[in-house]
Amino acid sequence: MLDRRRDFLAYCRLELGLAPNTIAAYGGDLAKLYDACGALALDIADIGPDEVGRILAWLRDQRAQAPASLVRLLVTTRMYARYLVLEKDLARDRIQLARMPHLWNQLPGVLSIEEVDRLLASPAHGPMHARDRLALELLYASGGRASEVATIGLSDLREGGRLVKLHGKGSKERMVPLGSRARAALARYLDGCRTGLDPDGGQDRLLLSARGKPLSRQALWAIVRAAGRSAGLDRPIYTHLLRHSFATHLLENGADLRSVQELLGHANLTTTQRYTHVDAKRLVEVHRRFHPRAR
To answer: What's the pLDDT score for residue 203?
Structure first.
């Protein structure tokens, strides 16, 4: 039976920056899921809406799981399936077809603009400084997921680096503009560091390791964490935090939700709408200033 639990939990910790208690809960949920699959002779790849119903019924009847526990397990299962598709262990996610309540309305973690500036200025000095600075700039400038930024190729750069093509989930592609600071970091890296890493010009991948190989997503996680420590930021710093900050800062400065959806590569506007909650302070101020009966 396909079992990538350990890798999934590492992904939750390193890329999503989830709390240890949350990760432990996911691990417990997945243990129950695999127990149910074993009892029902199901493989993870077989699970669709009907199988979800059978699994939840078995856990309710055989393990006396409470409704709230079953709902959380369903959420965990859905996250796990998305991860397996992302890693190409599953061809498609049939679990998403199962009806599930929307439980999470938590605000994503966000860095202030000042914290982002500190973070982006904090990669360690040394031979990889230009690469690490570019990696950080790309994460924030594009709002890309770690997997999308790590796989950017030289062939994905357009108009002298003013645009970059990101390869998202489900083989979907999108073009995202890069600002002047990201382009400056790109130029420094291409003119110096990268030439030494790929002297023969045989690699299309933009971000390379010290050995001239494509930079892994795990290495990108490590760059972000190290920069967070150097910047003295007193919270966990992870790649998705820059994606959240990218979206929030766009909305705070007047971007419309539909444009942010396109930049993030969200298939559903509902996914993007959670970022509107973090902008409540600005909306309150707009209402106070312009509504005739606000005062």
So the answer is: 93
pLDDT at 69: 81
* Residues in the chain, pLDDT under 50: 101-107
DSSP lists the bridge partners of residue 110 as none
- Run of H or E including 157: strand 157-158
Residue 148 sits at the vertex; the CA angle it makes with 143 and 152, to the nearest 5 degrees, is: 105
pTM greater than the 0.90 cutoff: no
Distance of CA 13 to the CA centre of its chain: 12
Q: Are 149 and 140 in contact (CB under 8 A)?
A: no
The CATH architecture assigned to 113-281 reads: Orthogonal Bundle (1.10)
Contact between residue 186 and residue 240 where contact means Cβ atoms under 8 Å apart: no
Q: Are 259 and 234 in contact (CB under 8 A)?
A: no
State the pLDDT at residue 75: 85
- In order, the DSSP letters of 71-103 are HHHHHHHHHHHHHHHHTTSSS--SGGGS-----
For the domain spanning 5-97, the CATH number is 1.10.150.130
Cβ contact 55:40 at 8 Å: yes
Residues 282 and 254 sit within 8 Å (Cβ to Cβ) = no
Show me where the domains of the chain are located.
5-97, 113-281
The CA distance from 142 to 22, in Å, is 28
Which are the catalytic amino acids? 145, 169, 240, 243, 266, 275
CA angle 232, 15, 270 (to 5 degrees): 110
Q: How many residues does the structure list for the chain?
A: 295
- For the chain, the farthest-separated pair of C-alpha atoms sits apart, in whole angstroms, at 68
The residue with tokens 């750069």 is 157
Type of residue numbered 99: R
What's residue 107's pLDDT?
Answer: 46
How confident is the model at residue 235, as a pLDDT?
83
End-to-end CA distance of the chain: 63
